[in-house]
Write a structure and sequence with these properties.
The protein has 196 residues and is mainly alpha-helical. It folds into 2 domains: 124 residues, no CATH class; 53 residues, no CATH class. Helix 3 packs across helix 4 and helix 4 packs across helix 5. The longest helix has 18 residues. The chain is elongated, with a radius of gyration of 26 Å. The relative contact order is 0.09. About 8% of the residues have low confidence. It comes from Alkalithermobacter thermoalcaliphilus JW-YL-7 = DSM 7308. Pfam families: DUF772 (PF05598). This is Transposase IS4 family protein.
Amino acid sequence: MYQRQEIFNIIELFTSQKLINFYTKIFDNLDLSILPDKIPSKYGPNGYSRHALFRAFIVMKCEKFAKITDLKDFLENNLIIAQLCGFNILKSLPSYSVFQRFIKKLSNSYLKEIMKNQVNILKELGFIDNNFISVDATPVKANTKFNNPKCFANNKFSKNNHPSSDKDCKLGVHTANNSMNVQVLEDKPNNSKKKR
């Protein structure tokens, strides 16, 4: 009886060693010094470690969870991963609202700074260099009727006909591959109207 209880208390048995090693390596090389770990609260306890919450969201992305509830279930079923994140597993794990509040209040500047630090570390270690520059040239079409293929508006492809809500947006058709790029003339004659 006692031996069986001891087996259930060993939390490493319920999570694969490969997964434990994966998250250990990620978290050991993650520099979160830019993010304040605890924010003092005037009205109550300090709450959970912000570093632990941040690491938990890294787990969420690595495991490809779409919802916070899936993350919470995963951490409750894999307590060693929750411990690697930085949570005290002898106490209750954060609730859904704690995760949601953290991700809503986390400033984008922290994410940019953490990403920049990680890229600099990889550059120093020689994993990446700055000999090549990569640019994402995927067009993001404006949400306007002129970019709708079913729209029959006049001057649909005119570069001078910008939507009133966004003067910086780009209009026009984009080809599926660069070898077939054809420029559409802006002042293409409109033959659809007949003169009477």
